[in-house]
Structure formats: C-alpha cells, structure tokens
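Standup notes
- DV: blocked on the single-chain target, sequence here:
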Amino acid sequence: MIDKKDKQILNILQENCRLSNAEIARRMNMVPSAILERVRKLEKKGFISGYELRLDPKALGLSLTVITLVKTEENVGSTRIGLDLARIPEIQEVYFTAGEYSYMVKARIRDTDALTSLLQKMGAVSGIRDTRTTFVLDTIKESAGLNLDSLESGTKK
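- DV (later): unblocked, structure below
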C-alpha cells in the first residue's frame, strides 16, 4: 500500500530521480533515513521499477519521430511479431493493440533515408502484412510520469 507520503516521494522522483534522499527529506520535512526506507520499500513492492536517463534525441541528430501502425498475420493474442519489432534498435516503443492494426511502434531516426532503412528492417519480420507510418511534426507532451493524484490512498500491489 502507498500513502500520501509515498505518493509525494514518487512525484518528486518522477520530476528528478537524481535527487538525494537528503534533498527529498528536506522538501518533505522528514529525515533522510525515513526517505531511504520508504524508497526501498517502494522498490521492493515494485512501484518503482527502475531509473532511466532521458537523452535529447534532437541533440543526438535523431530529429525525426515516426509512429508506425503494423498490421500482421499473427494468431489472435500472439505477440511474437511485437517481440521481433522490439529488437530493432531504432524502435523505442512497441504497443500491442486491439483493432485493425496489431501494433503501434514509435521510433526516433535521423531522416527519411533512415526511415527507409527502418521500414526495410520491419518488412523483414515474418508475418507483417502492412504498415502505416506517420511523421511527428512536433512533440507537445512526452512523459513517462504517471498521475498519482488520480490514485486512491492505500493502493495495493
């Protein structure tokens, strides 16, 4: 279960997971050892699944974001093709979806030549029948953070 203080810790860590326990404790008017204990419990219970560095794709020359819908010939419920797509290095996210398309894939690439290469890699995956790719013109919001305010206190895991 998480309480109000756990939510506050999680919100602070979502903003900046590099903050020290002492800084979090200062913000919450608690002692660092209590923060450390709560964070360890949150990790152990699986509420915190890891810590990740976020790179600026444009600064690295990956200025083109594409979203590709993938239609497959897989059996219903199979995710083999999704697992194959996830192994392609340019692909950042793979979502198994319901509807006309089986997967939604997000990739960051340099340019249209790199898109051609990516689509060739995707086309080499057995069972892909069709794709529909959309270019992202501008990212309005992109976040891995979750809205914890919508959770009731006492959330169980």
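- Follow-up: Residues 32-44 form the longest helix (13 residues).
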